[in-house]
User: Fold these one by one.
Assistant:
Number 1:
Amino acid sequence: MGYARKVGWVTAGLVIGAGACYCIYRLARGRKQNKEKMAEGGPGDVDDVGDCPGARYNDWSDDDDNSESKGIVWYPPWARIGTEAGTRARARARARATRARRAVQKRASPNSDDTILSPQELQKVLCLVEMSEKPYILEAALIALGNNAAYAFNRDIIRDLGGLPIVAKILNTRDPIVKEKALIVLNNLSVNAENQRRLKIYMNQVCDDTITSRLNSSVQLAGLRLLTNMTVTNEYQHMLANSISDFFRLFSAGNEETKFQVLKLLLNLAENPAMTRELLRAQVPSSLGSLFNKKENKEVILKLLVVFENINDNFKWEENEPTQSQFSQGSLFFFLKEFQVCADKILGIESHHDFLVKVKVGKFMAKLAEHMFPNSQD
């Protein structure tokens, strides 16, 4: 009887261990599949929701695309590092683990994409996110959710399973890797009108975390991407009105990648006439004018000019002339006014080596003088 009980315990342990290894393998394997399907700049699945055009992509990077080498391998006790026998034993263990993973994969889903989880599997992953406190488990589970949230049909399923508040709760973590993955999941889920309506309650928290995060960090970039998605429509842009000055600060101080991401957000805001006054009220750093020089990336200058042109086009001089006193010194309003009046701040770009930049600046200055500050010509 004792022997049978021992055999039963061993068998149960093997079954549970195999199931756990397979689940972890499926979560980890999604990194490679995600990169192949959702490479940034390529086509992706988009919800047909009218106000949410354009695809959004996962943007985490992998140092090594070979997911099989990242799997969990159990080494025997005698496979010590640094010994010849240990090296051979570890190589044999890795080979056995690889063969086992391939066999399990073939039996489990011979003709299907292993990264697309069923609703039942998504529910289990959400339970992992909700119950686990281990960073490496949370990271693997969030990567799996991010992969599946890249598909339009899964965004509704994850929402119906209560996944939005579960993932949003992870934003309170102090682990930057886990927080970044949670922001990526929410970013993919936000390409959906109903999801946006439910995610709007977290916009202030995401905005605060983005502004206070380490400059140019992955968490900051992920937060900016989520805020950009949430401002594709005009419905929730007003929630960022008090943070526009901080976005200009990030734009001036950040690296090239941060600058481009902030510009995408500012472009969304500048296209909305209702946000023109809030943009002009924003305090901008004095270093903003120094961006117009030969050393700055041409695309950064051109996109910034587009932001200014949209603001200029939406500004109604006749309606706003009596209220100019509401704009304080150091605001974007006075920056644009000096941009046109103080020629010495623009002379540096007049000798810019790029002809397109010179043409764009010349046209913008003419429009600025004609439309926004007509009286300044006197």
Number 2:
Amino acid sequence: MASVNLCSLVQSYPNFNRVSSRSKSFPFNLLQNQPFSPLKKANFTSLPSVACVLTKEEIVKEEEQDPQKPIFDFNSYMLHKAGTVNQALDAAVSLREPIKIHEAMRYSLLAGGKRVRPVLCLAACELVGGQESMAMPAACAVEMVHTMSLIHDDLPCMDNDDLRRGKPTNHKVFGEEIAVLAGDALLSFAFEHVAVSTVGVTPSRIVRAVGELAKAVGTEGLVAGQVVDLASEGLTDVGLDHLEFIHLHKTAALLEASVVLGAVLGGGCDDEVEKLREFARCIGLLFQVVDDILDVTKSSKELGKTAGKDLVANKVTYPKLMGIEKSREFADKLKTDAVQLLQGFDPVKAAPLVALANYIAYRQN
């Protein structure tokens, strides 16, 4: 993707221009555990290029420009990290009494998925000098919260969806009552898991992490965005600032928490944490812009969930307000800004976050 000058476009986005602080007002009255080295070359001074999230044509073009630039093996990195996260989730939420509720929790929690949020948490921890083990409970917690939001979002009283990650949604398998309770149980256990299972971290940092996660889920985060999103269905006068409020809270808040939790638990200083917070807000908004584009350009089979449901629900989206091409340009601008925020960090340790920003920008489902 080529870099695009969107100054005139972005100037019309009041919340994005002050992305460092989420609005607190509503705009009207969401492998094996073994040593691993993803870099083919170790000594370099620039950020590594990202191979596995680009098209073959883009890879060839990039290598022609700088054949000496080391390639970061993103696919191997994600397989390794997702594998360790899946093992940790399986161990954390074991099948025990009452059997049915734990079956329902595990059904959605272990249904697959890209594990972007927990991997962001682990990568941020390691970027600031921490060890993976310090952030693994938090990484599991953000995935538990994310899974809760998906279970509840799919309910008939919300988005009324039958398909999630290529499988029947939780309430279709276990019934609405158990689905609600499974989401509730995952949410409460997420906080317990951070508080009880985090090791090698000072109590003050654990408390700070719990506070960050709670804020991201509540009325200053996911819930706020969800409420405004529901209230916006069918409205015809929704602007970009309104839409941005929804997604900075409903989607970006939990992605932000994932990165911030990792940085806090890994021992990052305040400046590092805040710089990574800004990075996370950029990729959080980017995630939703891309999601909106995919919803109208991909099939349900390709997405693993129902395609076109926002259109059917008459929800406001970026393509609806800006068109697909302008939405793609905005996504590219967000990705570029996110990567620039990582300048100044160790380029080797920053490579996974650079790769994740590119992956979010270029993903196809």
Number 3:
Amino acid sequence: MRETESLGLCFENMLIFGGGAGGGGRWRISEWKDIPAELLLRILSLVDDRTVVVASGVCHGWRDAISWGLTHISLSWCKKNMNNLVLSFVPNFTKLQVLILRQDAPQLQDNAVETIASYCHDLQELDLSKSFKLTDHSLYTIAHGCPDLTKLNISGCSAFSDSALAYLSRFCRKLKFLNLCGCVKAATDRALKAIGFNCNQLQSLNLGWCDHVGDEGVKSLAYGCPDLRALDLCGCLLITDESVIALANNCLHLRSLDLYYCQNITDRAMYSLAQSRVKNKHETWDSPKNEYEDEGLTNLNISQCTALTPPAVQALCDSFPALHTCPGRHSLIISGCLNLTSVHCACAVQPHRAANLLSHLAH
């Protein structure tokens, strides 16, 4: 009922303040079905996604108009029967480019994803996070039906296998953002080698808590995805300095790196990252620069990396001025590393030096 009232209010406002040809600022409308597609889409731009779904069921005319103009929608508000909603809603909306199906409790099944892949061939962004019921069949259908995907979130989909993920990478080669957090069976070195080989445009990858990921997989990513900007390796206990060194040498656009609880990481990895800053400057010396390209690493989480020492981390911090330890700007996170409390960013060191100078002058 709330959705219908909301739709009616927007409709009345459009009639009062809108304009239509020959209508003196009003459209000539006697029934709901007479609303022009242009006006209907303007109305729906003012309401939430739940109301859009309700509106699509008013009449065939409305459904056809919405099908023509609707490119982005989220069904995450649906707490029950999301699977049935997808099965009935999606076939009529083939122009979708963004579809968000994030769930609090698992609802989606393979037949819903198969329907999406069968009808939404223009899809660029798909969020299936926490879809625990999905199997490899879903990844196979996405691979064949949605080749233009640039952003895919399957975090928490723990039933997917690495063979299905590797298969997907062969067809969805335009992927730029991929979230595999918690996909412990899918995110293996075998799958990462396939991603590194097939998805060369990848910019952001979340491998959080994928404890089968090792150096071979990360090195394949580093060699195959040179434009990688953000990589989350938190809880990837098998990786060593070799992974970080490969990233430092090959992914010169890397801005965010999460190494939380990667306790095999040592000073060697930190010095390698610091040296990559110098290498990056040399390689881009004659190329046009902008502020984004020039700031280097901006976020680094080395919490619980207890083998690191202050000199190595300080060298890294000095190499990347955008890494902050000061209050309110923490982008260098060192929680659980009590021996790193002496590490400070440039803006934290300068006030300390000024205070020392003032104290010296006072005496």
Number 4:
Amino acid sequence: MADKKIGEYYAPPPKMGKWEGFRKFIWNSETSQCLGRTGSSWAKILLFYIIFYAALTGFFAAVFAVFYQTLEADKPKWMLDNGLIGSNPGLGFRPMPPEANVESTLVWYESSKKENYMYWVEETERFLRYHTYDDLPKKNQVNCSFEHPPPEGKVCGVEVSSFAPCTLDNNFGYHVARPCIFLKLNKIYNWEPQIYDLANLPKDMPEGLKQHIKEKQSLRPNETAVVWVSCEGENPADVENIKSRDYYPRMGFPSFYFPFKNIEGYIPPIVAVQFTVETGVLINIECKAWARNIKHDRSDRRGSVHFELMVD
């Protein structure tokens, strides 16, 4: 409220109570002010912020439009060694322990108690159903072989029945103390394996795998284009406590599943490893994928995976 002039001086505004002062701040009928501003003042402020935020929105929209012009929807801008993922795939295993033990890699159960081992059966079944899209239409999928790789724009399917006896009907072996562990190679766009041939097998490759490759080479030489897989006990005691291990449908990932091109319907290959182990003993196991362009680094989880297995 404007002060009233008396002679050459201004008189202070009349004292008002809190409620009356607040009410006058909300709306001053003498000066037509709302919250201390006239209508024209509010209109100028509103116009300023409309223009300001419109310009800000336009600026960021233009920045994102230019940025997205450099990207493609179906493949990454930076691939292989130029990207953060790199060109050395990791190896993963399923089933995983409960989320409460998210950092654990221990598969531990009692084969004589159904309520105990059913968690692992259900987790494995959930993984296969999700991983193979078993309940969805198999888009772009064809049956592949070493002689018939997928044509352009198509991908190879994965049949759950090929993992037999590691199937749901058999409880994935958990009820008979022969658990099935499923291995998968992480997807890297446009990565292709450089397959080992018989003449350049690495010295640290397990002897059992070397012998298997030699047998394949002599009996079915056209079926050796494989990213080989081996699972071994980490320590001498672990090696002794693993009685046997069987690989289904084969001892590795066929090369016709690569490269990953983000084609709809693509399913990474899976290997089921069925272990027969000494019961009541904790066994440390390391599985490795073998190709000339796969390096093994346990600390970075490259090319290999570690887990513990204990069957009571």
